[in-house]
Amino acid sequence: MKELILNADDLGICESTNFAISRAYSEGGLTSASLLVTAPAFRHAVEQVAGRHPGLQIGLHLSLTSGRCQSPPDQVSALVDDAGRFRRGFASLWSLMNWGGRNARTQVRRELESQFQRFVASGIPLNHVDGHRHVHMIPPIFELVADLAREYGCPRVRLSCEPFPRIASTIRDGRAALLARNLPKQLLLSVWGRTNRRRLAGLSAPDQTFGIVDSGRMDATALRRIVEHLPSGVTEVITHPGLGSDDGVDRSIADGDLAFLNSSSRRVELEALLDSTIRSLLARHATTHA
């Protein structure tokens, strides 16, 4: 059996992204989305996307690198500035979790739980949990996330483990630069994935995930290649549809996220999810997984 989850990350980051995700679900092949409770358009996403599309499966997109904390800032000072804006990147979080001591881990758990609580308070059924920029995959953080998922009745956690790419076809598709940029990340996450899978007791996870090597450019070519060679089991494909506009979001959003939002590739990813040829391939090659 081949089952497919087509997920859109970053729901709630800005209103234009919310509109794109809404359209990708109502008119395209999107099956689920991951919601940032730390982002400026969270409430808009709850009302205008979740409220209008009860069939869209929505999960929690945990963030420790972008947006505003959900805990009192003075209780998570290792993570945020005085205004509550996250101030660490991925590598800095990894360092903090390994050498920051018990207090750092306590602060991270407090903030993660606050984000779970805000999601649950929205009234949206919690379908899954994952992490913005894959921060949940850092092994000490993944352990906390898995514990909280069980505590809050979340059935599924993303394991960001992507099969090693077909190098020749990836380069032939004009993706050499993308491969060079994203392959180290794919390798690191795959190594951590083997460790994290052992911490899943009582939880489910996709058997494989795509969208790491093609992160930033999950266009029709990439999506078609994945669907045509879909492996057995449950596969999650990570996408980032948008309209190429940040809607003037406030400065709590990290600079890298603002540049990503304004990329023309966001609209290209939306068009891929709306592509009728891709939808026909999905109907032939996979069963949609809720």
Overview of this protein structure:
With 290 residues, the protein is α/β, with parallel strands linked by helices. The protein has one domain: Glycoside hydrolase/deacetylase (TIM Barrel), CATH 3.20.20.370. It is 44% helix and 12% strand. The chain has 11 helices and 7 strands. It has helices spanning 15-26, 42-50, 90-99, 101-121, 139-151, 167-172, 176-197, 220-228, 255-261, 265-274, 276-285; strands at residues 2-11, 32-35, 57-62, 129-131, 208-210, 233-239, 287-288. Strands 1, 2, 3, 4, 5, 6 and 7 form a 7-stranded parallel beta sheet that branches. Strand 2, helix 2 and strand 3 (57-62) form a beta-alpha-beta unit. The longest helix is centred in the middle third of the chain and has 22 residues, at 176-197. It is globular. The mean pLDDT is 93.
CATH superfamily (homologous) name: Glycoside hydrolase/deacetylase
Which word captures the global form? Answer: globular
Low-confidence stretches: none
Largest sheet: 7 strands, parallel
How confident overall, as mean pLDDT? 93
**CATH architecture descriptor text:** Alpha-Beta Barrel
Instruction: Calculate Rg over CA atoms.
Output: 18 Å
CATH topology: TIM Barrel
Number of strands: 7
Percent helix:
40-55%
In the CATH scheme, the class would be: Alpha Beta
**β-strand amount:** 5-15%
Query: Which class do the helix and strand fractions yield?
Result: alpha/beta
SSE order, one letter for each helix or strand: EHEHEHHEHHHEHEHHHE
Number of domains: 1
